[in-house]
From TrEMBL:
This is Tryptophan 2,3-dioxygenase. It catalyses: L-tryptophan + O2 = N-formyl-L-kynurenine. One of its GO terms (molecular function) is L-tryptophan 2,3-dioxygenase activity. It holds the Pfam family Trp_dioxygenase. It is an enzyme of class 1 (oxidoreductase). Its EC number is 1.13.11.11. The keyword DNA-binding does not apply. HAMAP family: T23O. Homotetramer. Keywords: Dioxygenase, Heme, Iron, Metal-binding, Oxidoreductase, Tryptophan catabolism. It comes from Collibacillus ludicampi. It comes from the Bacteria. Substrate binds at residues 53-57, 115, 119, 256.
Amino acid sequence: MTENHLHAKEKWFEEKGIHTDFQNRMTYGEYLCLDKILSSQKRLSGHHDEMLFIIIHQVSELWMKLILHEIKAATDSIQKGNLSAAFKMLARVSKIQSQIIESWDVLSTLTPTEYMEFRDKLGQASGFQSYQYRMIEFALGYKTHHILEIYKKDQELYDRLNEALHAPSLYDVSIQALSKAGFEIHPRVLHRDYTQPYEADPSVEAAWLTVYRDVETYWDLYELAEKLVDIEDWLQQWRFRHMKTVERIIGFKMGTGGSSGVNYLKKVLDQRFFPELWVLRTKL
Ligand code: HEM
């Protein structure tokens, strides 16, 4: 490069006010730890399409991290009686969910033939072992303590999951909000064992029914309920698209995690997080 070229280049940056000296300044890549993130796509088969498979899982896990971050803060806000702050976070969760659902369109470009070329490299690894997915289930109130068994090899992770298992869920604190608003909630619900999956209760159903029948009086609780329904609705749509994508790619083969595969994923679709909020729709 000639001296004239060099000068022109410096002038170009200078005119635009662009920073070029990063000897003592943090760069974009450093802030985001891109060296770690972008060197974490280790294809075990070296197969072209394994890159898509890895990235789609990693992107989903990153979004799950944000979902957990938002649900946790929303749960704290509801506990403190600050519903408006929670609404903003829960709305963000729904938007993230719609993003993750879109990713099934990208994964559907993976054909059964392509997947079979590297599937055996996965061994017994499966999304079934996604601990963030289980933490989301826990945070929403679907507590399955037996799942902790999978994480025994990592004590720190096991402890984190155990803590999440014992914590009140988003639905638990929403029911407490009903109680604080004067609704009579049965003590067996208010003092329930948080390590167990939530079970529908007539006192909770009656409270939500009153909210939906008089939305003007109970606007905040009504808005909260609809935010919860949004989240469950999107989660079910994620599950449905996962199940159909899996059927498209592996048919009815067993999963690498050891389950029956698509039949297992179909069964999971029946599981509900906020049962009363669905039942009341028939009763209104
Ligand atoms: C080729 C693509 C995929 C196939 C063939 C596949 C297959 C399966 C199968 C068969 C199961 C049932 C458990 C088992 O026996 O393994 C499962 C569970 C699961 N997968 Fe996938 N999956 C795919 C992509 C993904 C992606 C992109 C994610 C995103 C993180 C994901 C997350 C999960 C989760 C969280 C479960 C547990 C579901 C539950 O227990 O409710 N999977 N997958």
